[in-house]
Amino acid sequence: MKAFTTDFAGNTGSEICFRIDKRKTLSFGFHNHTFWEFMFVEKGKVLNTFDTHEKVLSKNELCILNPSTSHSVTNPDETEPYLLFNFEVKKEFVEQICSTLGIDLYEVLPTTYTQFPLSDNEVINSIHALNLITDNDLESKKESLLRITVTKFIMLAYQRKNSHLQSQNHIVLKMIEEMKNTENFSLSIKELCEKLGYSHEYVTRLFKQENFLPPNKLFLFNKLAYARNLFVHSHLSINEVASLCGIYSISYFNKTFKDCYGISPATYKKQNVKNKPNF
User: Fold this and answer.
1) Domain 166-271, what fold?
2) Strand partners, 55
3) Are 6 and 32 in contact (CB under 8 A)?
4) pTM greater than 0.90
5) pLDDT digits (tens, 9 = 90+) for 154-182
6) Which of 65, 63, 50 is nearest to 110 (CA)?
7) What number does CATH give the domain 4-161?
């Protein structure tokens, strides 16, 4: 079946084009892309048809398609409502995020496509913020929310890729658990390893054997995710947030936050200044 190529539909300066589809009849012909496509179904189901098979994408499932993958998209039952979140993501942005996180793009993301369900918590953490976007929001705020969502999608794909290794090593499991604990965020990765009785070099070797992100990269990602949460839900200053995350150089904090999320801490904080509790 001959496929046509679809180009990026977003603005020239945007990295991501986002749309919500809920038409009664969804019918998009056989095509491939000049971008990565991320598809998430919040309600109902849609059908992807590939060269040799069909694959239903159901509620709370995410599908990531390589730019070269040809497919068509339909809703298999017009009597069943559906809600499809579609993200067109420029190749350069995906490459940048993978590089920042220390992820091998071609090892983690698919050569054709990958599809997996999200847990309720993963949906809340990655998708529900998009429901807060309004037509009155600045484009920069919309773009930053989309960048964060796609970054989380890539991390979820990485975790799924390595899920079969989760129970292989109790030291790695313990380190992953401790790297999520905000009480440890004041520590460096070397100090955290020593707290648990291991050298940083030894833990790094174990993570490499398990094909995981380097522990320093994973610990930094957790700290930056916590920083983003503090900017949304508190009135803390950038210096205070950075300190709570154990990052004591503001220039380094600014650089790593922007590298990870595509937006500076100051801009992100300004965009989320409304509707915050005081604490």
Assistant:
1) Arc Repressor Mutant, subunit A (1.10.10)
2) 48
3) yes
4) no
5) 988 887 776 544 546 889 889 988 998 99
6) 65
7) 2.60.120.810
